[in-house]
Amino acid sequence: MAALYRIDEIAAASGGVARDVAADTVSAISIDSREIAPGALFVAIKGENFDGHDFVSKAVEAGAVAALVSRDRADALSGLPLIIVEDALDGLYGLAAFSRSRSKARIIAVTGSVGKTSTKEALRVALEANGRTHASIKSFNNHWGVPLMLARMPADTEFGVFEIGMSAAGEITPLSKLVRPHVAMVTTVAPAHLEFFPSEAAIADAKAEIFSGVGPGGLAIIGRDHGHVERLVGAAEAARLATLTYGFADADVRISDYRATRSGAEGHVEGDGLSLDLSIATVGRHMMANGVAALLAARAVGGDVQKSLAALASHGAPEGRGAAILLGERSNPIRLIDESYNANPTSMRAALEVFAQMTTPGRRILVLGDMRELGTASADYHAGLADAVRAAKPDLVFVVGEHMAGLGEVLPDGLVAGRAQAVDEIAEAVLETLAPGDSVMLKGSNGMRLGALVARIRDRFGEKE
Ligand SMILES: Nc1ncnc2c1ncn2[C@@H]1O[C@H](COP(=O)(O)OP(=O)(O)OP(=O)(O)O)[C@@H](O)[C@H]1O
Ligand SMILES: [Mg+2]
């Protein structure tokens, strides 16, 4: 594996001192001793539930050639190959800043209440068709995820894509200043994490922090299909960025003629010098918007529009975010829509809209889990889904969780096939109910663990290509 950093570069960037390190370079960086690649640097981060310092010797056994550790823990780790810093997380920030300063890559940062990962993955695919691309994995978007992803960026990267998230005001500013993107994107503003914010406008302001790290001549790309666009555009202009809005509403780049196709969806894209048809391999107006966002950001960093279009046309949904899976008999499969990763009122409505447009020979079945972190208005948000659920024309609805119970109460009795507090209590009933030809969508916050039921359904009925 190619070297990512020399040991002396790590020491200099993190303000640390190497002790008992035999290697000259590291080829990877990890904070998880279970996922160490041989030749890696292990960074001992202290989280809420664990402290990486307790796993340094495991990491070294697994092949780590050095561990970045905090000074107050170093004595207890004598004999192990260490780079000793004041604080390991600060050291990781230092390494990330060094990664950024040595890089010639064009960099994009993505935030928003929903759609960050979906858009980031679309961008990864579009940019990989254009050059050497490094993109954050999963939703590694917080105070350790962003520096870790940035520190992992190879020196010869041409395009970098970073997901930046937050659960409170003030969190994005330091991350944006670390990443220093050329292009900053806000996908949408929605009531997520409302527990920690007085209003949706306050959420918009927190998202707008992403503009703070963009240098002169930078660009803000802003989704237009929500209520806080002017606020975001104003913030971007105040940060002296050029702005480009996109969406189904009256945006700089407008999407029209959205239609679901056999293998995904298509739409027409018009504005800012573009007039083209975009096809994507997923369904949903929201996924089309994410595709357009990716196309615009890729173009803004020098990507070729035709190459990006071709790549997006064959890009499916990330796991748990609307992936459509055919199970069982080829002639009459069960269609499973896996939305188990995440849910809030915006993504729930988007998913129900997709489900509404699906045709199916069998029954239409929904398994809906709690949308978490909605604060005091949670009950209203859950019961308020009734119209969207009815519009999706389900034959059966299973509700899981204390909040979804409220939706169960306002839906007609005959429609609600099962109610439970936790997914384990309802899994058998769902498995028993499913039959060839049915379509089933599972959606809830990740913590509701509907993904475990998705796995059991896939297991039980067997996958078809
Ligand atoms: N633009 C969008 N508008 C509404 N819903 C969306 C949009 N993009 C994706 N979704 C849906 O929202 C859910 C979460 O998507 P995704 O994982 O991309 O969001 P995220 O912002 O990365 O979330 P997290 O904060 O958990 O990292 C999925 O169910 C997805 O289908
Ligand atoms: Mg994410």
From TrEMBL:
This is UDP-N-acetylmuramoyl-tripeptide--D-alanyl-D-alanine ligase. Keywords: ATP-binding, Cell cycle, Cell division, Cell shape, Cell wall biogenesis/degradation, Cytoplasm, Ligase, Nucleotide-binding, Peptidoglycan synthesis. The lineage of its organism: Bacteria, Pseudomonadati, Pseudomonadota, Alphaproteobacteria, Hyphomicrobiales. It is an enzyme of class 6 (ligase). ATP binds at residues 112-118. It is found in: Cytoplasm. The gene is murF. Belongs to the MurCDEF family. MurF subfamily. Pathway: Cell wall biogenesis; peptidoglycan biosynthesis. It holds the Pfam family Mur_ligase. Residues 330-445 form the Mur ligase C-terminal domain. Residues 26-73 form the Mur ligase N-terminal catalytic domain. Involved in cell wall formation. Catalyzes the final step in the synthesis of UDP-N-acetylmuramoyl-pentapeptide, the precursor of murein. The keyword ATP-binding applies. Residues 110-298 form the Mur ligase central domain. One of its GO terms (biological process) is peptidoglycan biosynthetic process. GO terms for molecular function: ATP binding; UDP-N-acetylmuramoyl-tripeptide-D-alanyl-D-alanine ligase activity; UDP-N-acetylmuramoylalanyl-D-glutamyl-2,6-diaminopimelate-D-alanyl-D-alanine ligase activity. GO terms for cellular component: cytoplasm. It catalyses: D-alanyl-D-alanine + UDP-N-acetyl-alpha-D-muramoyl-L-alanyl-gamma-D-glutamyl-meso-2,6-diaminopimelate + ATP = UDP-N-acetyl-alpha-D-muramoyl-L-alanyl-gamma-D-glutamyl-meso-2,6-diaminopimeloyl-D-alanyl-D-alanine + ADP + phosphate + H(+). Its main location: cytoplasm. Its EC number is 6.3.2.10.
